[in-house]
Amino acid sequence: MDKKGLFIDYCSYEASKYAVMNYHYSKAIPSGKLVRFGVWEDGTFIGSVIFGSGANPNMSKIVDLTPYEVCELVRVALNKHNNPVSKIVAFCLKKLNKDFPNIKAVISYADPMQNHKGKIYQAMNWIYLGETAGAIHFKKDGRFYHSRTVNQKNREDENFDRNEFERIKTKKYKYIYLFDKKLKEKLNDKIQGYIA
């Protein structure tokens, strides 16, 4: 625990799910293998930071690495907190790097539809790689759903009607954090200036 009462350690799936359902706009915990960190301030659980394999199976190709060497920061789900988000995420990255030395880079996306530009990543000197190519998302009752989620539900439930959802093409801002700084030279033609 540091001077501001911050403590970070691994947490259960249930704790992470609680944080995502209560503190993250998606209200959905990602599937696949996850590394889940719990965040406490002065002994009170305030949320979770989650890393995973991500939705894009080709993201490791950006830096010519294998899928086992790159992960995605998939959720930062925090209640009210005293410590800056950048400090909390930095603690998690440090622990991730120590416990999973095979991981050479972390990718994350900022969603402009949620008024996110990636200010957290900019504060931590992540590298900005521009906008994603774009993907179709589905919207219903003010909530956004990943196309993979809707398509899977459509296959599994014969009463499910995909036409009840509005289809929206979305782009996100892509950032990368390198544990292995030598990889930066592989990104020279992709690096862009931060968006204001």
Notes on the protein architecture:
The structure is a single chain. With 196 residues, this protein is α+β, with helices and mostly antiparallel strands. It has two domains: 6-132 and 172-187, Aminopeptidase (3-Layer(aba) Sandwich), CATH 3.40.630; 135-170, no CATH class. Helix content is 21%, strand content 32%. It is built from four helices and ten strands, in the order E-H-E-E-E-H-E-H-E-E-E-H-E-E. The protein has helices at residues 13-23, 85-99, 119-123, 147-156, and strands at residues 6-10, 34-41, 44-52, 70-78, 105-110, 127-131, 135-140, 143-146, 166-170, 173-178. The strands form two sheets. It has a seven-stranded mixed sheet with strand order 1-2-3-4-5-10-6, sandwiched between helices. A three-stranded antiparallel sheet has the order 8-7-9. Strand 7 (135-140) and strand 8 form a beta hairpin. The longest helix has 15 residues, at 85-99. The radius of gyration is 17 Å and the shape is globular. The two termini are 34 Å apart. The model has no long low-confidence stretch (mean pLDDT 88).
Produce the secondary structure layout.
Layout (H helix, E strand, L loop, with lengths): L5 E5 L2 H11 L10 E8 L2 E9 L17 E9 L6 H15 L5 E6 L8 H5 L3 E5 L3 E6 L2 E4 H10 L9 E5 L2 E6 L18
Parallel strand pairs: 4-5
Antiparallel strand pairs: 1-2, 2-3, 3-4, 5-10, 6-10, 7-8, 7-9
